[in-house]
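Two folds, back to back.
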Amino acid sequence: MPRIQFTTPEGASGTLELDAERMSVGRADDNQLIIAEDSVSSHHGEFAFDGSSWTLTDLGSTNGTKIGGSRVEHVSLTPGGAFQLGNVNCVFVGDAEAEEDAYSAPTITVSSPSSGYGSHPYNGRLRKGFGPKVKQKNPGAALLMLLGVAGLLACGAAVYFANQMGA
């Protein structure tokens, strides 16, 4: 039975059995194949078998599906073929009969988009991360706060002087 062997950046590893013609992979519990690692999107991709070969289609994941560091949308899988889901290293292992023939020349056919989001290699140095959201500063807010403080001071002064006159 074909399967995917994976290793996370922390060193954890596992095997996912491909036992249906279409199987979703991702971090969320509603996928048929689950890889609980932060760089894998909730619904990262889908494995499909067309009767003769397996393909992996990226479903618009945040960290992408990569071959040799380049983002791809579709991967035709052959036994021994390596790819990444986010930062998780994966290897496709085919059926036992196919494995013996394929190890002589493992190949991966990659189809990447010619334009658009995934057409350029991913540059990890440009990533900003998922830290706390930074509030945009409103230039008019400072003036409004200054007027509010001035108004409170004026009211306070009026109350003080009114008390002084009455005493």
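---
second:
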Amino acid sequence: MDNEEIKLEKPLFYKNHFALRFEIGPPEIGAWSNFDNENFNEEYFNVALDRAVKIFSTVFSSDDDCSIVYQIYSDGRRKIKNRNFLFKQVSDVKNRKVVFTDHREIYSEDLDYKCECWKRATISNVKVNDVNVDNILIALINSDFGSRSPSLIGECFFINHNNGLVLNLYDDRGMDVVAPKKDALEQLYRRHNDWILDYDRKRIDSVFS
């Protein structure tokens, strides 16, 4: 898949015509076990991970060719370090193709100074089997909860080169899956229809029903 077909900028759902948005963390359960926000409700995180893994597994087969794109905002000094949690989830990452690039064409309206950019690391030529996907997904789910680990701060996009789609778990609340063509998403729409975010369901149904 040509990466230029889909701009790696959140929210993917609102920037692509063929797009699905899923509710990951169930609000009826809640992330906290009491009203004082002192203790986490582990059931919430278990359900969120289960949904995220099942959605991922529907559109990524174990031997699919994929790339992982990780990016962070930088004021010119902040960089993606080699010891980043994400790299540890890819087997034999030292011998993988990892490309570091700077980008000002994404979120350009938020970049006020020339030194500001988005730092991106692209890990390509990997199979799904080469990646500990569950660890990455739970780290993204934890990203808004400072005391939970593992945690992965930044944006992570999974690109499936076999069926031409991009998946982004943006935090514990939701996941976007987009593609240049409708047929890449139709099975996902049918199989996990109950998890589609109700707020966007009308728009989604108008495209896929």
